[in-house]
Amino acid sequence: ERADALPYDLAGVRVVISAGGTREPLDPVRFLGNRSSGKQGFALARAAAQRGATVTVVAGSTAEPGDPAGVEIIRVTTAEELSDEMTKRAAEADVVIMAAAVADFRPVSVADAKIKKGAEGPAPIELTTNPDILRGLVESRDAGRIPADTVIVGFAAETGDETGGVLDHGRAKFARKGCDLLVVNAVGDGKAFGTEDNTGWLLSSSGTETALPLGSKTLMASRILDEVRALVPDGDR
Ligand code: CTP
Ligand code: CA
């Protein structure tokens, strides 16, 4: 066996991955969005498919030229649409990975017609909070609506601030979300969004904290899948 051969260790494993950013409409031509490229989610999808998994990607807006090959792709626009698809598909999955950048807020109302500039100047945009899809998946598992052995993976894009560093914020988020693995990415200074490389930590519910050295999103994907595979029950692969 060649030392550089890709592992084929996810045969029979059903993986559902959210990728890209959501867009929250304001009127027929405008939306609130974010800079997610979808690269990390797509890299995970490609790597999982190469390792034998059956992969579905639920994708919002992405900046990737090509969809990953050998993968089912479902397109969505808003956080609510993403929530519906992920909730439905999680029931049939062994592994669910929330790599999407979900808008935390959406406009309360969507204008039927294009908002005009008018003479009075801009009106404030009232926002409401979107569902927390990752938290909802963990709650569904706790409530028995999805199988107890479903592996749930979250992402956290963090910057350090006066209250703590990237890892501190990552640990706090991990405790709040209740997922099995949290990929903590250091962002800002040109890191993560739209770039080819990622760095950070992988936190697991068994208490391990693995540093992810700066490297390609492909390498990051393979590190994440190594940890995911160890959590998938034998009967599912
Ligand atoms: N996420 C989600 N639903 C949301 C917001 C986030 O499922 N409405 C998921 C993301 O896909 C990611 C994880 O939760 O896997 C963390 O997202 P993040 O934006 O870092 O966390 P928030 O809980 O939104 O906290 P904040 O943005 O305030 O840091
Ligand atoms: Ca958020």
UniProtKB/TrEMBL annotation:
In this chain, CTP is annotated as bound at 104, 114, 131-134, 155, 173, 177
An example Gene Ontology cellular component term from the record? Answer: phosphopantothenoylcysteine decarboxylase complex
Q: For this protein, what does the record note about how its cofactor is bound? A: Binds 1 FMN per subunit.
- Pathway recorded for this protein: Cofactor biosynthesis; coenzyme A biosynthesis; CoA from (R)-pantothenate: step 3/5; Cofactor biosynthesis; coenzyme A biosynthesis; CoA from (R)-pantothenate: step 2/5
A Gene Ontology molecular function term for this protein is: phosphopantothenate--cysteine ligase activity
Q: Which domain of life is it from?
A: Bacteria
Reactions catalysed, semicolon-separated, are: N-[(R)-4-phosphopantothenoyl]-L-cysteine + H(+) = (R)-4'-phosphopantetheine + CO2; (R)-4'-phosphopantothenate + L-cysteine + CTP = N-[(R)-4-phosphopantothenoyl]-L-cysteine + CMP + diphosphate + H(+)
Q: What's the Enzyme Commission number for this chain?
A: 4.1.1.36, 6.3.2.5
| Residue numbers spanned by region Phosphopantothenate--cysteine ligase | 15-237
| Segments forming domain DNA/pantothenate metabolism flavoprotein C-terminal | 10-230
| GO BP of this protein | coenzyme A biosynthetic process; pantothenate catabolic process
- Keywords on this record? Decarboxylase, Flavoprotein, FMN, Ligase, Lyase, Magnesium, Metal-binding, Multifunctional enzyme
Which prosthetic group or cofactor does it need? FMN; Mg(2+)
Q: Which family does it belong to?
A: In the C-terminal section; belongs to the PPC synthetase family.
Function of the protein: Catalyzes two steps in the biosynthesis of coenzyme A. In the first step cysteine is conjugated to 4'-phosphopantothenate to form 4-phosphopantothenoylcysteine, in the latter compound is decarboxylated to form 4'-phosphopantotheine. Catalyzes two sequential steps in the biosynthesis of coenzyme A. In the first step cysteine is conjugated to 4'-phosphopantothenate to form 4-phosphopantothenoylcysteine. In the second step the latter compound is decarboxylated to form 4'-phosphopantotheine.
Protein name (record): Coenzyme A biosynthesis bifunctional protein CoaBC
Source organism of this protein record: Gordonia rhizosphera NBRC 16068
- Gene that this sequence comes from: coaBC
Instruction: Describe which stretch of the whole protein the shown chain covers, with first residue, last residue and complete length.
Output: 188 to 424 of 426
